[in-house]
């Protein structure tokens, strides 16, 4: 009887082992199937699933997956911030990761980066990349170093009758809708006892007449608006206008400006940090960049 029980138990174990070995799990999925699945996910989710097993890890690093996440103009962007030899040796995932970082170009006066979740393009232009009337005369404008700017310095207006700040750019954007915004402040950034302060004693003239904002593109789009500058001491994002890109492989020329050229009164105390061009749906997120 003992030998019969032993034989039965042995048979059960063999069946269990056979059943276990015939089961499939996620590791048995073809890598091509996993890649097709990952293509439908956002980059953060792809990185999370890379930890599931080796098959998911390999699939999550494939060029097939990451090329679908890169914007159509990624080669143009890479040419701005990477040398040609580096691009030729990098995987698409490495290129995506690099473009999601802060990438300065044009003598460190401009910056481009991809939004990590969506892969959409955001562009920042420092005050030194803008054409500012009278910027070379220190009686009117000076550059101030400050940690409040992503470019570490801002243009500060001491006093002037004619104020005009113009940005011009030729760039290749992916298809979509974009907004142009100025980041400016009334007041002079400074430090007192190690704390950031804003000196507003030279702010004048902005409540007399509004500032005019204007945007034009090589597609024939034009946007004009006016606004009084009346918020002292805080960085404010002033919307210039929107434009739409419909041709995926054609660079677009953009010109935008802020101006207060009424010479009946002087203006002063204006601080210009940068201009921002980003997808229109990001307008409410600008402070997060």
Automatic annotation (TrEMBL):
Gene3D superfamilies: 1.20.1280.50
Region (Disordered): 1-27
InterPro entries: F-box-like_dom_sf (IPR036047), F-box_dom (IPR001810), PP2-like (IPR025886)
Pfam families reported in the protein's UniProt record: F-box-like (PF12937), PP2 (PF14299)
Domain F-box positions: 23-69
Residue stretches of biased makeup (Polar residues): 1-11
PANTHER family reported for this sequence: F-BOX PROTEIN PP2-A14, F-BOX PROTEIN PP2-A15
Name of the molecule in the record: F-box domain-containing protein
Organism whose genome encodes this protein: Vicia faba
Taxonomic lineage of the native organism: Eukaryota, Viridiplantae, Streptophyta, Embryophyta, Tracheophyta
């Amino acid at each position: 009887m003992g030998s019969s029980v032993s034989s039965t138990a042995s048979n059960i174990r063999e069946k269990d082992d056979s059943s276990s070995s015939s089961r499939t799990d996620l590791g048995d999925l073809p890598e091509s199937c996993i890649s097709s699945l990952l293509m439908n996910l956002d980059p953060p989710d792809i990185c999370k699933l890379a930890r599931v097993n080796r098959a998911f890890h390999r699939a999550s690093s494939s060029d097939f997956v990451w090329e679908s996440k890169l914007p159509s103009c990624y080669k143009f962007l890479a040419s701005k911030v990477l040398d040609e030899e580096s691009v030729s040796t990098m995987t698409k995932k490495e290129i995506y990761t690099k473009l999601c970082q802060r990438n300065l170009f044009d003598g460190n006066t401009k910056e481009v980066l991809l939004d990590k979740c969506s892969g959409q393009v955001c562009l920042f232009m420092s005050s030194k990349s803008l054409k500012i009337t009278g910027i070379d005369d220190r009686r009117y404008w000076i550059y101030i170093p400050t940690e409040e700017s992503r470019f570490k310095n801002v243009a500060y207006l001491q006093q002037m009758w004619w104020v005009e700040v113009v940005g011009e750019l030729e760039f290749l954007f992916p298809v979509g809708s974009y907004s142009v915004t100025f980041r400016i402040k009334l007041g002079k950034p400074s430090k007192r006892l190690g704390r950031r302060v804003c000196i507003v004693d030279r702010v004048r003239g902005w409540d007399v007449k509004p500032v005019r904002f204007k945007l034009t593109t090589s597609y024939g789009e034009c946007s004009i608006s006016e606004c009084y500058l009346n918020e002292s001491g805080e960085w404010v994002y002033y919307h210039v206008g929107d434009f739409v890109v419909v041709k995926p492989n054609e660079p677009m020329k953009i010109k935008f400006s802020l101006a207060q050229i009424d010479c009946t009164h002087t203006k002063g105390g204006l601080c210009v940090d940068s201009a921002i061009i980003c997808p229109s749906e990001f307008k409410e997120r600008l402070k997060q960049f």
